[in-house]
Amino acid sequence: MALSNLSFCVASGEIVGLLGPNGAGKTTCLRCIAGIIRPGSGHIVVGGCDLSIQEREAKRLLAFVPEQPNPYETLTVYEHLRFIALAYDTMEDFDVRAEKLLSRFDLAEKRNELVGTLSKGMRQKLTIACAFIHRAQLFLFDEPLIGLDPRGARELKALIVDAAKSDGAAVLISTHMLDTAQNLCDRIVILRKGEKVADGALADLRDHANARRDATLEDIFLSLTGEEKESAESQSAT
Ligand SMILES: Nc1ncnc2c1ncn2[C@@H]1O[C@H](COP(=O)(O)OP(=O)(O)OP(=O)(O)O)[C@@H](O)[C@H]1O
Ligand SMILES: [Mg+2]
To answer: All domains of the chain, ordered by start, with CATH?
Structure first.
């Protein structure tokens, strides 16, 4: 397993950024929490349900948007949203909620098109819309902003804030976009080589890294992951 000794929690109403260099274990961590990979040891608890014991109940509470969404190509956009809402038994006000999501992600005109005909970014938007249609209590996003157009990215960020702050959902989001993480997240967890090297609000991370009071998340990230030192060393070697 690419992760070791990893422990953290995401509270209701909290938006947590999961950061780390390539290969640090972010996707592995999200896939474990989503119940796709079984960790060799340890516990994952979603909304009070232990994933290894109450798998169905735990999975029902979560929505996972993977890095490379893979929606069902033979359904239409509308059928796909409906299928997800039916599967999670959340059909209440479905038509109104579906129309809102379709319009926010510029998919309204595509509602009767087959998913297989959508562009990559449109598939990503549909997968994100599906995550929001079933009123999850825990949202897991793996690099969700890559490939989204500016309006889609803005809508997603607004929906994330709304889900956490109005509906009390817990949100865990992996990203390399440190500006976005700094603005969007209440707390940041930084992984390096499968281990947690920092966990806290920006101010805590500044203390942890002995950084200046105006240090950005990028400064702190590079310092805590050792990437700053390595890149300076490689520059002086050339
Ligand atoms: N399917 C797999 N089989 C074996 N090893 C894997 C698999 N997926 C990932 N790994 C390994 O696990 C480690 C963590 O990978 P992971 O994909 O979780 O990193 P990441 O932090 O998401 O990186 P990135 O920023 O590139 O997306 C890496 O060493 C990787 O090679
Ligand atoms: Mg990844």
So the answer is: 7-61+137-238 (3.40.50.300), 69-135 (no CATH)
